[in-house]
Queue: 3 jobs
Job 1
Amino acid sequence: MSIKPIKNNLISINIISLLIALILLFGCSGNHQKSDAYGNFEVIETTISSEANGKILKLDIETGQILEVGAVIGYIDSTDLGLRKAILKSQRAAAASKTANIQAQIAVQDQQQNNILLDKDRVEKLLQGGAATTKQMDDIDANLNLINKQILATKTQKNSVKKELTVFDRQLDQIEENISKCRIVNPITGTILNKYAEAGELTGIGKAIYNIADLSEMDLRIYVSGDQIPTIRLGDKVEVIIDKDKKNNRSLEGVIGWIASSAEFTPKTIQTKTERVNLVYAVKVKVQNDGSLKIGMPGEVNFLSTKK
């Protein structure tokens, strides 16, 4: 039996195994290249709080519901405000009635003033003909001076009543504003993320009712190292990679919308391209959401500018 052919066969088998291993190694490394940056998707969440005190009479919202801006979704009891409004209206009406009385007084005083002026004109003519005395003229002047002061005082009362009515008007405006705040109006278009109150519960000014966010566009917050910062710019298009299933990924297009002006320590949950780096810069990549992106979902980024 010859030993040499057996050795040759073993060598050939080893060479083939080595070639297969190298192919698999390079093939795996080519399919699993590290991305330039990693992070998680986030959105700007808006918490809608109560602007009034009282019982929630109606609240027609559910988690996951999409709301349009300006939608009236509920009401807070405004009975007390309505009663205060009625009281203020009655007080204003009573104050307004004073104006009519004051105006009537002014009309009477104006007539008295005209009568005195006629008497004065008549006495002046008689005085020139020697048929009247100086004392009669002095009495008329005194009466004229008195009626002028009375008219001035009455007009002052009228102005005071006008100011009082203005105060009532502003108080009524304030009541109307508070009543309008009893309507729960959605301020932005978006999806309800959490609901913190129910109809029938008591609420107060500043107490959260729900929070909402616009999920049509999401931000992928990533962290890049100092040697990556010079290569990226605001408005640059990037490749965003998310998980499609357990084995495959999905590629999306993103745009760099914000770059931090100062560095920070690497978050513990983030791995950057350069491992063990101490300081990194936060970057937000804006991505249009087709419904597949969720808050907190991980994502990866490849900077196209560095690939060119």
Job 2
Amino acid sequence: MPARTPAPLLEIRGLTVARGRAVLLDGVDWRVGRGEHWAIVVPNGCGKTSLLRALTGYLTPGAGDIALLGRRYGESDWRELRLQIGVVTAAFQASIPPAEPALETVVSGKFAQLDLWGRVTRTDRAAARRWLGFVGGAALENREWTYLSQGERQRVLIARALMARPRLLILDEPCAGLDPVARADFLAFLTALARRRRAPGLVLVTHHVEEITPVFTHALVLRAGRVVAAGPRARALTGATLSRAFGARVRLARRGGELRLALGGPRAGKGFAG
């Protein structure tokens, strides 16, 4: 009897979200296989927030299916499934008490609850310390949220997401607000995380192709709630697909595994693709 093919980490079919006459997502199909790391490239107002809210069970789509590890939303307890998807987003920051120590913020990830008020065990605290150390934040344990830099906050939020040992980790514009040095350091950390044994599948949401390091194997390009391209990175990320997404002619440079985007100008020449 042939071995059964394992279910993908995530599979979305025909996902549609509308509010009034506005269609926020229009028939989105997307499949994240095991061992894949994805970049989602989006212009402003493309439906990214609706997609993330639907994936985490905070928004009910009008049509379509979402399955995580082969279990469909609507047929399984979404509160349990949500623990399998870690999300790092600036939207969480306003809900974290300014005086909350970093260790407490990390512990809250085990319960997918911000401003945690439940009982915390010594085991929980020990696990939170390990994750803080893993993200390079061991020295931040007792520092209050209000005194953390943007880069430190991102690391704490990643440690928080990893507390639940998710199978998929979504990073929503994690480099926003970082200076160039902090951004380079953070992207190097993501590369190390992706290469870690039993690492979760990573999904990087970004406006900037420069943040898509070689460790990201696939890309999803969206515009106005629709899929422009989805698949292996080299095929999905081209000057043509990005021009369609951003509504302007762009050139995509590929050099040494790094990507650069330029607006307009002459047709792609040496060292440029798409």
Job 3
Amino acid sequence: MPERNQPPQQQESPGETGAMNPRPRDEMRDYVGRDLLRHKRALITGGDSGIGRAVAVAFAKEGADVAIAYLNEHDDAKHTANLVQSEGRRCELIAGDLADRAHCADTVDRAVSALGGLDILVNNVATQAPVEAPEEISDEQWQRTFDVNIHSYFRVTNAALPHLGEGSAIINTGSVNGLRGNKSLIDYAATKGAVHAWTYSLAQVLVDRGIRVNCVAPGPVWTPLIPATLPAEKVEKFGEHVPYGRVAQPDELAPSYVFFASNQLSSYYSGEVLAALGGETHPG
């Protein structure tokens, strides 16, 4: 079983996996693929670490080539690429700020060029900054949270759509905070609520094109985002409130993305928000 608690710790944003204690389980070491994504080509934003890394490795084990977009966590990204390549699959690294409109389109162009096309898009990049009161949220913070967490999803998806077709899949990363709100992550929760509603709408409008759109909405997950954005005392207690009494590990969530990416497993699923909440049966 994973650790039930983690010691207090803090990092500078955006955070690095190597400095985390304990290290997250994010390499899918015990996962055995079944060629569910053979010959597929996937772009994963926020793919350098955490959930994105675990998804990239799981996709590779299922036979997919992968492009991962990330900000500037080059060591983490290179490690993820090595894990993908050790499975005999291609991994293209695309660094840059997805809060920038032009970079969103460029990311898709580079992924398509490197992989020879695109079949799966995972919108996963995110940022957060806790506050004690709404008045603490500056206009700049509000704008950046929306630019990264929802505007990049919209922009990357719009750039990807001309390359997607019958049998393609789009998977968005939401959050429990988008289902019930969070008093200290007000702007973050708002963006995740938008991701969920956008998933529902996009699924409806793309059904005639044969493109499925789904969302994974996790509860607490042990990724670099946590020690990089929360105070040390909150990191120590992070995840204690769920019935499981602990955080999720990225390896525990990646199979949900494989499920939604694989037509063999989820051909009748679109417009679904799958909430992985550590035993909670009703958010809120």
